[in-house]
Write a structure and sequence with these properties.
With 195 residues, the protein is α+β, with helices and mostly antiparallel strands. The protein has one domain. The chain has four helices and eight strands, in the order αββββαββββαα. A hairpin with an 8-residue loop joins β1 and β2.
Length: 195
């Protein structure tokens, strides 16, 4: 449709949730995060929006390699010919993940209904109830199942994530210096590695 730019138009750090929404949509349109289709951004029940994953051929544009470090393992596309389309799921935008954790604790939102959180920062409240696996840690990148997703939150001892996240600050740092951010992620979440 048009020639995309090599840089994101936003030049300032997000300060509020609306900035997070704008930056994320720029990342979608620039192809930094691929395959996420935002279906609604107005409130759906008590949630911020709906999305689905839509991977269309050629699938190589979603596969992890040196030129696509946010990609997913090529094994996920083994034998795929037709588009891979997920069911419609719930998306939450937050400035910090702490805001969503507080809403879960207050009973305003249900962890069973949220599938993806897009936030600027991860915060610290997750530590009370979740383990985190960072896909930005190079040791865990093979666990990423959706292009551009940065983290998965698990209940301790469980092997399926409660929900996944795209933490934009960490993603920006990773795009600026992959090795430095991977090392930082190892340091932050080294206890939460899943084999």
């Amino acid at each position: 449709m048009f020639l995309s730019t090599e840089e994101l138009p936003i030049r300032s750090m997000p300060r509020v949730e609306q900035d997070v929404v704008a930056l994320f949509n720029q990342m979608l349109s620039s192809g930094i995060v691929r395959g996420v289709q935002v279906l609604a951004t107005s409130r759906y029940k008590q949630y911020d929006g709906l999305y689905r994953i839509n991977y269309e051929a050629p699938f190589t544009k979603y596969m992890h390699d040196d030129d696509n470090p946010l990609g997913i393992d090529k094994g996920q596309f083994a034998g795929a010919i037709n588009p891979i389309i997920s069911k419609v799921q719930v998306l939450e935008y937050k400035y910090t993940l702490d805001d969503l954790i507080e809403e879960f604790q207050a009973g305003e939102k249900d962890t069973n209904e949220v599938h993806l959180v897009v936030a600027w920062e991860i915060g610290t409240n997750w530590k009370a109830a979740y383990d985190i696996v960072s896909y930005l840690d190079e040791r865990n990148s093979h666990l990423r199942t959706f292009h551009g997703f940065t983290h998965a939150l698990y209940r301790p001892g469980q092997h399926n994530p409660v929900f996944e996240a795209i933490i934009l600050k960490d993603l920006v740092l990773y795009l600026q210096d992959q090795q430095k951010e991977s090392d930082r992620q190892k340091q932050l979440y080294s206890e939460d590695i899943i084999s």
